[in-house]
Each structure stands twice: as structure tokens, then as C-alpha cells.
Amino acid sequence: MKIAVLGAGGVGGYFGGRLAAAGHEVTFVARGEHLAAMRRDGLVVESVAGDFTVDQVKATADTEEVGEVDYVLLGVKTWQLEPAIASLKPLIGPDTAVVTTQNGVEAPHQVAAAIGSTAVLPGAVEVIAFLDGPGRVRQIGGGGKLTFAEWDNRSTARVERLRDALQGSGLIASVATDIWAALWSKFLALGSVGAIATLANAPYGVLRTRPGTRQLILDSMAEIQQVAKASGIKLPTDAVDTTVAFLDSLPEAGTTSLQRDINAGRPSELEAWTGAVVRIGRQTGTPTPLNTVLYELASTRSQIG
Ligand SMILES: NC(=O)C1=CN([C@@H]2O[C@H](COP(=O)(O)OP(=O)(O)OC[C@H]3O[C@@H](n4cnc5c(N)ncnc54)[C@H](OP(=O)(O)O)[C@@H]3O)[C@@H](O)[C@H]2O)C=CC1
Ligand SMILES: CC(C)(CO)C(=O)C(=O)O
């Protein structure tokens, strides 16, 4: 099985690293010092599920050098998608599947606009992993699960092969019966808590126990539910309860990646989180007054650093 990991950061490095360690032919498309370090020293993975090093890493900055593969694991951040998508073409053969891992609900559509929806397996990742220096990935929790499916949720050989490869590599793989409901269910959590956590600059333990901020999270989720409905998404009836239980289960001192990025003055995924709630709300004629305020204030905050 030939796999290209385009964007070898927390997600790409961890999932790609485990697939490579299990013997699959994985090529990492990376750049800068990270690429140099992987070529020189291999990919070092520190993980709560067991540390390992992938020696003799196949890594390049150029997708032309990789050629056609069976699967592309797209591991870039949402704001890095455009150039990454533009570099996909040399990797794509007649049955190549590009697996998206980005938070939010728009990445599969952005990729499909360039290469067609039949080449895309929309995916959602559960892990807490990050680059801990060039050539080094750290996974500190979150399991290591990829939920994915064909665009139309049909069962195919390539979906089963990928599931088996992930499971055989010490990862958790779940083929969704409705991948869009799965992506939007996760979006209920991101879209609601991300901007609120950023503006309050508070961890989960505070946000969920303070009645006012807890209610804001619930009100934001209610808007996202309406946007999902207007987009034709059939969320499970217990989607909000499940999401609230998930947020309640996160560590008290935990923070969202959105607030960490904005606090550090880095580019953030705000456009793909609350920005997308507002944008898709507008496209579907669904009012999102709370998320509109959250988006404007969080955008202003990220602009001033
Ligand atoms: N990390 C996590 O625990 C989780 C992340 N996600 C989602 O997964 C996605 C990826 O996140 P994450 O892994 O944290 O991101 P990272 O920033 O850790 O990794 C992205 C990597 O892609 C590289 N990259 C970007 N564009 C290109 C390109 N054109 N060619 C080659 N390399 C490129 C970046 O390099 P450079 O640094 O040079 O830009 C970086 O190494 C996000 O949408 C995130 O929301 C979802 C669940 C959990
Ligand atoms: C679900 C959530 C919000 C948990 O922190 C997340 O995935 C993130 O912060 O990126």
C-alpha cells in the first residue's frame, strides 16, 4: 500500500509514522528543518501508546517526486489547504483516495473542487498530537482514531483496506455510516467552544462550570444545529448531549487549539470554525446572531494579536 502524507505535523506525523512503522510504504511531504531532520535522523514519535522511531524515512518537499499513491493523508491546517491542494495532482491516479483530517466541515469540499468528490474520503481525527521540534512528533492523548468514509458513505474495497491498514498499525479506525453527520457532530464542539474559549481566554474547567459561559456554549451549539439541518445534515438526535458530555470530559486545564494559536499570534483555524458557522448560515438562510458576534470579536482579537 503506497501512502503519501501531505503535511507531516501532529496528525500527519503521528498517523503516518504508525503506518510507516507497521511496514507500509509511506512518503512524507514536508519542508524546511522538519524535512531535513526526518531525512537525517528519521521520524521520532513519542506517544502515550508507545514510543518509536521510523528510520530511513521517505520524505520529500515535492509531490512530483512521489508519483501516484493509493492514499493521501492530508494533514495540513485549514488555512494551509490551498497550496497543498494545488500540489496534489502528481499523487492522484484513477483510484487514489485523498483522506481529509481537518477540523471543520469544509475541507472535503475544498479538495473535491480541485480533484472531484470520488477521489475524496472525508475524515475526522481524534488525537492530541503536535510537532515537538523538527523530526519529532508527540502524542499526549486523544486515542489516535480516524473516522472516515466514501463521499456517499458507500462501502468500497479501498475504505476497507485503509481501515485494516490503520488497525494493523496500532491506530483506531472507524468507517462512518454517515461521514457528514460525524463531521458535523465534531463541528458542534469546535464551532461552539473555540471562539468562546478564545474570547474568555479560559480553560474548559472554567467555561463549563460558569453558568453564563456554559449557556453561551449551548446557545452557539443550537445555532450550529440549525445550520446543519439547513445544510441537509442528519445529526443524531443525541448529538448535543454527546457533545456536552465530551466537553465535560476534557481536562479542567485543557484549552482549544484555536485559543492557543490565537494567543500565540499564530495563524488560526477561526475561518474554518466559527467563520464557517456564520458563512454556511448565511448561505443557507439560517440566522447565527451569537456566532456572528463571536466571529467578529474573535477575528478582531486575532488581528491585533
Ligand atoms: N493536532 C491534533 O491533535 C489534531 C488536529 N486536528 C486537525 O488536523 C489538521 C492538522 O493539524 P495539525 O497536525 O495539528 O497541524 P500541524 O501544524 O502540526 O501540521 C501541519 C504540517 O503541515 C505542514 N505543511 C503545511 N502546508 C504544507 C505544504 N504545502 N507542503 C508540505 N507541508 C506542509 C506544516 O509545515 P509548516 O510548519 O512548515 O507550515 C506542518 O508541519 C488541522 O485541521 C487540525 O485542526 C484534528 C484533531 C486533532
Ligand atoms: C474538540 C477540541 C475543541 C478539543 O480541544 C479540539 O479538537 C481542538 O481544540 O482542536
Automatic annotation (TrEMBL):
Q: Where is the Ketopantoate reductase N-terminal domain?
A: 3-152
The pathway is:
Cofactor biosynthesis; (R)-pantothenate biosynthesis; (R)-pantoate from 3-methyl-2-oxobutanoate: step 2/2
Q: Which Gene3D superfamilies does this UniProt record tie to the protein?
A: N-(1-d-carboxylethyl)-l-norvaline Dehydrogenase, domain 2, NAD(P)-binding Rossmann-like Domain
Report the superkingdom from the record. Answer: Bacteria
Membrane-spanning ranges: none
**InterPro entries under this entry?**
6-PGluconate_DH-like_C_sf, 6PGD_dom2, ApbA, KPA_reductase, KPR-Related, KPR_N, NAD(P)-bd_dom_sf
* Top class in the EC scheme: oxidoreductase
State the EC number(s). 1.1.1.169
What are the GO BP annotations of this UniProt entry?
Answer: pantothenate biosynthetic process
What are the entry keywords?
NADP, Oxidoreductase, Pantothenate biosynthesis
Where in this chain does the record put each Ketopantoate reductase C-terminal domain?
178-299
The role this protein plays is: Catalyzes the NADPH-dependent reduction of ketopantoate into pantoic acid.
Return the protein name: 2-dehydropantoate 2-reductase
Gene source species: Kribbella qitaiheensis
